[in-house]
Amino acid sequence: MISALLRPAVPADEPFLWEMLYEASHAAEQGLTVADLETIPALSRYVDGWGAEGDLGVVGGPAESPCGAAWVRLFTGANAAYGYVDDATPELAIAVAPSARGTGLGTAMLERLVADAAGRYPAMSLSVREENPARRLYQRLGFADVPGSRIVNRAGTTSVTMVLPLR
Ligand SMILES: CC(C)(COP(=O)(O)OP(=O)(O)OC[C@H]1O[C@@H](n2cnc3c(N)ncnc32)[C@H](O)[C@@H]1OP(=O)(O)O)[C@@H](O)C(=O)NCCC(=O)NCCS
What we know:
Number of helices: 5
Keywords: Acyltransferase, Transferase
Organism: Nocardia xishanensis
Protein name: GNAT family N-acetyltransferase
Number of domains: 1
Bound molecules: coenzyme A
Number of strands: 8
Oligomer: single chain
Helix content: 10-25%
CATH class: Alpha Beta
GO molecular function: acyltransferase activity
CATH superfamily: Gcn5-related N-acetyltransferase (GNAT)
Shape: globular
Largest sheet: 4 strands, antiparallel
Distance between the termini: 29 Å
Strand order of the largest sheet: 1-2-3-4
Radius of gyration: 15 Å
InterPro entries: Acyl_CoA_acyltransferase, GNAT_dom
């Protein structure tokens, strides 16, 4: 049962979160390595120093070989990330290892994270490429597009910011 395979993301998960950030940011398309991410501030800010105050995440999969993670981190205006909406709303990153996709793990992790974040944060936001099938997952869980948030992303396609109210 998938719910039994979920646990909170702890500081020791930082190396695994770098791997998941690699998937979430589609870094392979740009010929990057996982190590390269640490040199790109626009991406490294999602994982660097994981376990800081306010960080909240879920790791999914077998204990000895996790295969997915969903996490939120709060960014303030001076350090606004791609899906920034305001200083009180943390931003979501989520990925499942390619071999484990489409089996419900992403949904289970996100549902758990939303439950954990409710009462702690007023909302969560994210930035997603308009053509990413993950948009259907976000819409199912109640995320809605932020009007006027479409931007041209690093890949030259369009990304949109989505927000899920938690209260
Ligand atoms: C998005 C992702 C985390 C979902 O996890 P998952 O375990 O595959 O998802 P589930 O099996 O619970 O749910 C399936 C939903 O995931 C999304 N999805 C499925 N395959 C996907 C893929 N290859 N890429 C992106 N999203 C996918 C769809 O929304 C799908 O819903 P649908 O069945 O209505 O089309 C995972 O597919 C992934 O890591 N994708 C690549 C990284 C990514 O795009 N991250 C989000 C960046 S904003």
